[in-house]
Please model this.
Amino acid sequence: MQLHSHGNHERALVTNSARATRRLGRAIAARAKPGDLICLRGDLGAGKTTFVQGLAEGLAVTDPVTSPSFTLVHEHQGRLKLYHLDLYRLGPGDLGDIGIEELLDGEAVVAVEWAERMPPGLCHDGLVIEVQFDEGDADGRRFHLRGRGPRAHRLLEGLGEDTDASACA
Model:
């Protein structure tokens, strides 16, 4: 994993495998607390679900983590509760039907795939992660992490310093 810092509240990372992407998720999970919101954006197949699998591993979730594309929300229990949402199939008017505000009440870590479909302002104190394919490496992914608010800033604090880059290959 290669790390580039863009100030205290932004990081750019490159992973070279699904294993490395899960490791990044585990590193974020090590800092997670109830009420943390992680907003994931990126193309189909970019690695959003793989990241959430690592996040779940880091939260000691033992059940399988798959994309909740058709069920919209999966709830997982580990050392902290994890709500995993996938908004790919929803339009902005559909979000009220799943009670997204209630899921953000602070009792769980919430990871949202296709977060760009959330109403503006819901990710005001969240960690926004843009995932892109790395054009030079078929297995590589580029992650741009931006912290919005104190909770997200805490998730980014020290990220990369405590991650063994050699183990990310």
In short: Strands lie at 2-5, 10-15, 37-42, 73-77, 81-86, 109-113, 127-133, 141-147. Residues 164-169 have pLDDT under 50 and may be disordered. The chain has four helices and eight strands. Residues 18-29 form the longest helix (12 residues).
